[in-house]
Description:
There is one protein chain. The chain has 2 domains: 4-162, Hexapeptide repeat proteins (UDP N-Acetylglucosamine Acyltransferase, domain 1); 163-202, no CATH class. It has one helix spanning 191-201; strands at residues 4-5, 10-11, 16-17, 22-23, 28-29, 34-35, 40-41, 46-47, 51-53, 58-59, 64-65, 69-71, 76-77, 82-83, 102-104, 109-110, 115-116, 121-122, 127-128, 133-134, 142-145, 150-154, 169-171, 178-182, 185-188. With 202 residues, it is mainly β. The longest helix is centred in the last third of the chain and has 11 residues, at 191-201. Helices cover 5% and strands 32% of the residues. It is built from 1 helix and 25 strands.
Amino acid sequence: xxxxxxxxxxxxxxxxxxxxxxxxxxxxxxxxxxxxxxxxxxxxxxxxxxxxxxxxxxxxxxxxxxxxxxxxxxxxxxxxxxxxxxxxxxxxxxxxxxxxxxxxxxxxxxxxxxxxxxxxxxxxxxxxxxxxxxxxxxxxxxxxxxxxxxxxxxxxxxxxxxxxxxxxxxxxxxxxxxxxxxxxxxxxxxxxxxxxxxxxxx
Length: 202
């Protein structure tokens, strides 16, 4: 299935759009952009030349994805959230050689109106709350809020906050995923191992 491009959108020559990707009203995709399959770019979205976007990514209205940003598969960008690529911009000083790369790992959510200061990595399935300002790396499964953003908990792949037992484990009530908290890091237990353990116990 070919990409769907609204008549008011501009997709420059050279841009690569995966199958079934939708580009909606008044959006602009620059020629160097690489966008995977089944993505959705809402109204008034801008995607720069040096941008890589994975599959099944949802970018809501009024988001600009500037050069040096990578969004892995299944990332969600809420309405009007902000990326940057220069740490100390000046109108009179050209700093295109000073772009700091930003990477958003698979499954992460960036809430409405949050800001991601350039040069950080946001971990797998992390969730940044609406209005937060991220200025440092974010761990996998971390729940972040505030200005500047601070970790206030852990969150699972399904988007539900995790509650850990004294032994450092948590179970998602929706999926049955098991998470382990070890050394200040949250890890998803291999589903195959969880199934194997359950079978052995039976």
